[in-house]
Each structure stands twice: as structure tokens, then as C-alpha cells.
Design brief:
442 residues, 14 strands, five-stranded mixed sheet, 2 domains, alpha+beta
Length: 442
């Protein structure tokens, strides 16, 4: 009987191939990083220790314009592909539909127990990760001119088939769905969004506290709820990213971008990640690394008030000032002057995602806003962005295409999953549908 057993050690995941209780082979691919002239290169070593030249070229040259984290995810997907190839002893060029189906289970970490073979895995991966890896592998196969494989089988489906209710004004859009992807829409539930009433209650609570931290929190929540910013985009803002609007000095213009000095929780999604400081001056960084967000007059005044109070040296302790100078400095892109992250902790350091989430959870509990403990929906901050999307749909009656632009989504299908009606709204839509049908039958 043949067994495939996954183990972990300091070098990563290793797959042991055991035949009749005797180890016959070991699959141990490695991802390593090399730096040359301040540029980070990723490479993958096969189990025999040799560099996979096809993967090296694809990751570092074909995917050159992608962010470093995206390239890292891509090479991890290819590491699984070639690990599976070594396990079944078949080159990826000759994979059949059955092979791809088994590879799909391999990505998910689904153990297989049979009469002839026994595959035991300890790593489990989500459907989202599975589909992201499959997208990378399709791109890689296309790069190798192997687009005739079953992994490219697809069908055209409608993203939105709503006729009545809150999405009645949107039109149906066709989208290609690959058969190798796993559908999760049937069981998927995005976190519940923050309603207008909840937003008002949160704002009132912060206003009643009337201190620097409550002012900071109000600004952050307004950026997420009124402008749809993600938490990482908020925490990555620096002083030089806040400017007057060129057409209205009372309004503002935010620049969202990634810096070398950013931590992972400060990253801006869909913005290019620079590999070194020289990238700040390149055209590709200026074109793909920068997003502009218009800020209305009221929010701009609140931001300016927070900047003034959080940098008023006469009102701050020496320790706060020292921490601010040492632990909140950020790369300056536009000038040679020192630059600092906009939002600070109570100690003067740059605000972290864990510090923010801790405070937000306290507020949610005080206001009896439901918190799903132990679930992905514990991402409380993203509920404000969901609230922004629902406001655009429900209150402003914008089309899905318009909402997608405001949300800065690359795909309209990403916008569609933000629609998360309450039970009352579902009932209301059902009653509208019923009345429309009755009118038709009369």
C-alpha cells in the first residue's frame, strides 16, 4: 500500500512517500529569496536542490509589476503544483483532468483513504486560497503555452440576476467561471454591515468622551464608513498624504499608497508594493501605486483638528513625543522632510491593527453590537466598509458598476458579495415581488 504523509519541520512542508511501510522518496521543495542591487528575487528549488528556471522567470519577470506579497503567494501556488507533480511522478505538461481534480483536493488538504493509496495531510486551505492558487496556475500554464488543459474549462454565468428589491436598478452582467474553481457563494455570508443607526450611536459615544483618542477613532470610522476605506489603507496614511483639494481649499484629497516603511497591517490593497525607495520615482509606481480619495469639507475639518491636537507639543508628554518621533516615522515620498504616520496610539507610536481592534471591540460591546466570536466575521472594521457599500446601494440607488468604482474594486463580482440585506429587507423585497406578480395576473 502506498502512503503519502505530510509533515512539518523548520524547512516547511515535506511529503513522505511510503511504499509497503518503507520510505521510498521525500518531496521537499523550498522557496528562497535573494537580493541583488536592492531588488528582491524569489526562486524555487526542487527536491533535488536545483533551481526551477521556468518558475524563476515567471515570478520575477512575467509577474514583475505585481506586489511582492502577490508574487510570494504565486510562488507558493507553484510550489504546491510541482510538489504534487513529484508525488505522482508526472510532469505538469501531461496532467489530465483527473490529475487536476486530485490536485484540487491536494490544495485543500483533503486526506484520501483508499485500498491502494492513503494520503494524509495536516495543512488545510480555504476555498478562497484554493481559487487564488488555481488562478495563478492557469496564468502559469498560459505562460507555458499550455492553454489547452482542462484547468481552463469554463462557462459564462450571470453575476447578478436580481429583478426586484434593493438591487432592482442594477443590470445583469456576464462573467466567466472556471470549472477548476470551487463555488462558495451558496454558503457564503459576508459580515453584517454597520447601519446608519449604529454609526450614529458610535459617533455619539466618541463625541461624549471628548478626548484625543475619541477624536482619532471618529476620524478612522468616518474614513471607513463615509469613504469606504479599508483598515490597512487608513493605518498606512501619513501626514503628507492629507492635502487640500485643488478645486476646493475646504475639502481634502487623500493619497493612498504603499511604502517600504509600512508594516503588513498598513498595506493598501490594489496598490503597487515598492521593492525599494527608488521605485517611488518610477512611472509604474505613480500609475499603479497611487489612489486618490476625495474628502468632503466636514471630514477634512475633523482630520485637520486631529492632526493639530495629536501634534500639539505643548499638550503632549515628553514620552509621547519621544515615541512619536522614534516609532511613527514613515518614508517621505514627496519631500526630503521627515514624515510620520497619521494615526497614533495612546503612547505616541504608530497605531497598529491589534490596538485599533481592541478599542473597537470594547465600543461594540458597550453598544450591544453583535460580535461573532471565533469567526472570520470578527473583522469588525470591515463592517464599516460594508455599510458604505449598502448606503450607496440603498440610499443613493447607484448601479453595481458605480458602486464598484466607489469601492475601488477590480472586479464587479467583488462588489456583488457586499450586498448583505437584513431579514426585514429580504421580507420587503419578497412582498414587492409578490405584489408585482399579482398585478401581472390580474
Amino acid at each position: 500500500m502506498k502512503k503519502i504523509k505530510e509533515i512539518k519541520n523548520t524547512l516547511g512542508n515535506i511529503y513522505l512517500i511510503i511504499d509497503n511501510d518503507k520510505k521510498t522518496a521525500q518531496v521537499n521543495l523550498q522557496i528562497i529569496q535573494k537580493e541583488y542591487k536592492s531588488i528582491k528575487y524569489l526562486m524555487m528549488l526542487n527536491s533535488d536542490g536545483r533551481d526551477n528556471e521556468k518558475v524563476f522567470y515567471f515570478i520575477n519577470y512575467e509577474c514583475y509589476q505585481e506586489a511582492y506579497n502577490s508574487k510570494l503567494q504565486s510562488i507558493q501556488a507553484l510550489k504546491l503544483l510541482y510538489s504534487f507533480s513529484e508525488i505522482i511522478r508526472k510532469k505538469i505538461e501531461f496532467f489530465t483532468k483527473i490529475d487536476f481534480n486530485n490536485f484540487s483536493r491536494f490544495i485543500l488538504g483533503q486526506s484520501i483513504h483508499g485500498v491502494q493509496e492513503d494520503w494524509v495531510f495536516i495543512t488545510r486551505r480555504s476555498i478562497s486560497t484554493h481559487n487564488a492558487y488555481m488562478a495563478t496556475i492557469r496564468k502559469y500554464y498560459k505562460h507555458l503555452n499550455l492553454s489547452d488543459k482542462s484547468i481552463f474549462d469554463n462557462r459564462v454565468v450571470g453575476v447578478n440576476s436580481s429583478s426586484y428589491g434593493l438591487l432592482a436598478h442594477t443590470r445583469k452582467n456576464n462573467e466567466i467561471k472556471f470549472e477548476s474553481n470551487i463555488s462558495k457563494m451558496r454558503n457564503r455570508k459576508v459580515p453584517k454591515y454597520i447601519t446608519k443607526e449604529e454609526y450614529k450611536d458610535i459617533n455619539r459615544m466618541y463625541e461624549s468622551k471628548n478626548n484625543l483618542l475619541s477624536l482619532r477613532n471618529r476620524v478612522i470610522i468616518d474614513l471607513m464608513y463615509l469613504k469606504g476605506l479599508r483598515l490597512g489603507e487608513v493605518l498606512g496614511l501619513t501626514l503628507e498624504d492629507v492635502k487640500e483639494h485643488p478645486d476646493n481649499r475646504n475639502a481634502g484629497l487623500l493619497t493612498i499608497r504603499n511604502r517600504i516603511s509600512d508594516k503588513a497591517y498598513q498595506h493598501a490593497k490594489n496598490s503597487l508594493h515598492p521593492l525599494n525607495k527608488n521605485d517611488y520615482k518610477t512611472e509604474i509606481y505613480k500609475e499603479r501605486g497611487i489612489q486618490k480619495i476625495v474628502i468632503p469639507e466636514g471630514l477634512k475639518r475633523t482630520i485637520d483638528k486631529y492632526i493639530f491636537k495629536s501634534r500639539d507639543l505643548s499638550m503632549l508628554t515628553d514620552k509621547f513625543i519621544s515615541n512619536m518621533m522614534m516609532y511613527s516615522e514613515a518614508d517621505a515620498i514627496e519631500t526630503n522632510q521627515n514624515n510620520y504616520y497619521l494615526f497614533l496610539s495612546k503612547n505616541g507610536t504608530a497605531l497598529t491593527s491589534s490596538g485599533w481592534n481592541y478599542n473597537l471591540k470594547i465600543i461594540f460591546n458597550e453598544l450591544n453590537i453583535h460580535v461573532d466570536e471565533g469567526k472570520k466575521s470578527i473583522n469588525l472594521s470591515h463592517r464599516f466598509r460594508h455599510g458604505y457599500a449598502m448606503y450607496l446601494i440603498k440610499e443613493l440607488n447607484l448601479s453595481l458598476e458605480e458602486v464598484s468604482r466607489y469601492m475601488r474594486h477590480r472586479s464587479i463580482s467583488s462588489t456583488y458579495v457586499y450586498y448583505n440585506p437584513t431579514e426585514e429587507e429580504i421580507l420587503e423585497s419578497s412582498e414587492i415581488i409578490e405584489s408585482k406578480i399579482e398585478e401581472f395576473l390580474e
